[in-house]
Amino acid sequence: MKIDTCLLCEAASVHEGLLFILGGGITGTTRDSYPSPLGMSLAMRIMVHPTEMAHPHKVEVFLNDEDGNQVTKFNVEVGVSEGTVEVPAGEEAEILFAWDFPGRPNLPHRGKYSFEILIDGNHLRSVPFNATQQGGE
Q: Are 26 and 79 in contact (CB under 8 A)?
């Protein structure tokens, strides 16, 4: 498995096998004060080799601040059922995600943050961003 697309965006959704992204590529956000709602989505496409389709896989997403403190975490089991998707030889199946973050977490303070993404316990991607304060340093 590999993550070939992963970015922060204003909004994202999955419809009819496509990933719809609005305002993709967020690397920073400015808020009037903290704590403040996260207010962004995570869009991701995972590519699955046919040999990995036989069983489910655990996707874990952690949002950590610059000191390594966990702000929020969620996980989901994903998979592609053999026989439901026809994958030509030499190609991979895709799993599309658009997360608005369960529980609507808050950013506790300004600073650097990073989403850390693991699949089956293996770290595959970091998606960092910076949170600043309007009129602040």
A: no
